[in-house]
Amino acid sequence: MAIIARLVSRFNAYYDERPVLTMMVTNAVLGGVADTVAQTITSIRERALRKPGGVSKDDTVAIEIHELDRKNPWNERELIPDSKDLPPPFDFERLTRFMAYGFGMAPLQYKWFSFLSRAFPITKTSAFAPAMKRVAFDQLVFAPFGIACFFTVMTAAEGGGRRAIAHKLRDMYIPTLKANFMVWPAVQIINFRLMPVQFQLPFVSTVGIAWTAYLSLTNASEEVEPKTAPYSPTIRLQ
């Protein structure tokens, strides 16, 4: 507890001096953690698949990942397609892209949370209604924009052109937005209702490690599928 208290105190001190930079560094680190988790999940699954005979009953982690992927209600395609040839070595370029994206988006997220705090102030006499208004604005305005921005920036950073971006948005945007609406309203209610302003973005980013890992798998799944699936008119390459 003493270590946590010291970290919180240090964070508050940095936030008071340079709030935007503090958020940028925090977002970058947590984005890197999330993509590392996503790449680890893929690696565990694919290492098991490359074993003679495929996934065995002793590969409990790989089996769990496979079951979660198979039951994924938001995407028709698997997040981690079967392949005997994958995974590649740890993708540091992909990790760098995620960290850079988190670093670059932090100022916009900071401004957005500050706007919500000013527009819907929470007081001792009025807390629930302003918190719900913040959640509604966040989910109906920022979430659709943020998801579109993520796929656009990531596809462009990977070298994709307009057609690749259009295909990624066509295939991934609606399922990801549906997943967002299943997860984030409850998280944001806790965030806006209980968290001080300086901890709102770090709280979202921390909870978002799992969400960003999901986005990382979603973004990567379409890169893998054209290489592993047989040709079909529905699979378009840039």
Report on this model:
It is a single chain. 76% of the residues lie in helices and 0% in strands. It has helices at residues 2-17, 19-50, 60-70, 92-119, 128-157, 162-194, 197-228. Helix 2 packs parallel to helix 7 (197-228), helix 5 (128-157) packs antiparallel against helix 6 (162-194) and helix 6 (162-194) packs antiparallel against helix 7.
Distinctive features:
mainly alpha
Set down the secondary structure blueprint:
Elements: H1 2-17, H2 19-50, H3 60-70, H4 92-119, H5 128-157, H6 162-194, H7 197-228
Helix pairs in contact: 1-2, 2-3, 2-4, 2-7, 4-5, 4-7, 5-6, 6-7
Query: How helix-rich are the residues, as a percent range?
Result: over 70%
Relative strand content: under 5%
Major beta sheet summary: none
Q: What is the succession of H and E elements?
A: HHHHHHH
Class derived from helix and strand content: mainly alpha
Question: What's the total helix number?
Answer: 7
The coarse overall form would be globular
Estimated radius of gyration? 20 Å
Nearest-integer average pLDDT: 77
Taking the alpha carbons of the first and last residues, their distance comes to 52 Å
Number of beta-strand segments: 0
List low-pLDDT spans.
Answer: 61-65, 224-238
What's this entry about, in short?
The chain has 238 residues and is mainly alpha-helical.
